[in-house]
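Aim 2 progress update. The chain analyzed this quarter is reproduced below.
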Amino acid sequence: MKKYIVVIISILFVFLVLTGCSQSLSRNESGIGKEKLNIYTTIFPLQDFSEKIGGKYVQVENIVPTGSDAHSFEPSTKTMVKISEGDAFVYLGTGIEGFTDAVIEAVKNEQTKIVKASEGVALIDSNGIIVKEKAVKGDVDPHVWLDPNRAIQLAENIKNVFIEIKPEQEEYFEENFKKLKEELEILDLSFKKMVRESSNKNYIVAHSAFGYWEDAYGLEQIGISGLSPSNEPSQKQLEEIIKAAKKQEIKYILFEQNVENKVAEVLKKEIGAETLTLHNLEALNEEDIKKNEDYISIMEKNIETLRKALDY
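Predicted structure tokens:
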């Protein structure tokens, strides 16, 4: 009799151990009980916001390499596998990442959370018109992260997913988001102060990536190329830009840190302008990394660059 009791107890013990392991795996797969969440992002602002909100509970990797362009990037099979094994894939969703459909399709049967950071954000098209449709198609300006107020919504969407995956750290994520939101609000005030103190509101950029500053602060960019750096102007458009620049006595042409534009170089010589660099924050370069730059510090430098460009 004792022998049978021992056998039954042994069977029950094994059952409980296996059940416990199964529950443990289930909790780990959903993010609950895991030490850190593995988060994959597409552009630098999403990486920066994810790290600041997630803090010690996240390990964040931006899949687009340093200095690369999200427009033309194609993830490798190895990268696809890593994302499928991760807890969340955070992408912008405004059309700047040409590879996201492939990633989403590849991980659709996995437990990876797909996070469209721009969900609910007011977008604008190339004519400065607010786009209300959820589906982003056509000539929508993808560079939504450059407006600090819209960046708050991006960050909040990230925060909400972190809480969904790891609800036991809701208070921690909320507190980190609150700090980031306050920094973005201060940045917005600095932008507004700079614009108020500037006598001019027009500036020339090599690439029309800064339309959200028009909407948010009343500035007007004169773009040499369109929403995509490859969209070069016609001869007539170039002549009109030269005419406007000379008339307004614009002294500077603003280039981006990771975009070359031969037409802009020609225009610079034609109007006798100097060059300044605006950082589009899409991706960091090696110098940014060495200086430990983040979204806030780079945007502060952009404000000072604009202050100089508008002082003519």
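The longest helix spans residues 2-29. The chain is about 50% helix and 15% strand. These observations will guide the mutagenesis experiments scheduled for the next reporting period.
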